[in-house]
Amino acid sequence: MAMSEPLVKHAYETEKKAASSYLDGLKLIKGQGLKYTKVEEIVLRIAVDTVIHKHLMEAILNAQKELGKISEGPIEELKEVELSPEQKALVKRFAEMHLEIEKDMIQTYQKMAEKMTHPLFKGIAEALVENEREHHRLLAELIAKYKE
Question: Is 62 exposed, middle or buried (0-12, 13-18, 19+ CB in 10 A)?
């Protein structure tokens, strides 16, 4: 995770400068009487995408910072441990509670994906649906494993 942080920072800074430049360029284009032309349309499209890229990189940086406080990175190997009946019940209740949250998020991201018009937003929402489905599957496995 941390190894990609310099790349994400670089991308963020570059997109930030580019977004500013594109937006300034749009003002110049409009000021030169090129409003509602193909040139303006192309620059506007790139400017919109660049603003989105900038904010996505900023979000990734923020997520990496937060994740750095709670985890060293992906878990390589899950250990099997014997749980007491109380621990099993606790894990099962916890998973059941969160299963509903994941179900809600699957539905929410599906609706977002249907309504999003920008391809980047639509793609992110679709990827989040798949990620939430994976969470749902993992929680369902825990529930099945720790049934009484």
Answer: exposed
Q: Can you tell me the distance from the alpha carbon of 121 to that of 109, in angstroms, rounded to the nearest whole number?
A: 11
What's the pLDDT tens digit per position in 80-118? 878 899 999 999 999 999 999 999 999 999 999 999 999
b vs e for 96-129, b when ≥16 Cβ sit within 10 Å of the residue's Cβ? Answer: eebbeebeebbeebbebbeebeeeeeeebbbebb
Separation CA 139–CA 96 (nearest Å): 7
Q: Is the pLDDT of residue 2 over 60?
A: no
CA distance 119 to 108: 17
pLDDT at residue number 71:
76
Of 106, 107, 101, 110, give the one whose Cα is nearest residue 133: 106
| Alpha helix segments (H runs only) across the chain | 5-31, 38-70, 85-115, 119-145
**Which pLDDT value is given to residue 101?**
95
Q: 38-70 and 5-31 are packed helices; what angle lies between their axes, rounded to 10 degrees?
A: 160
Task: Tokens for 117, please give them.
Answer: 């018009």
> What band does 136 get if pLDDT is binned at 50, 70 and 90?
very high
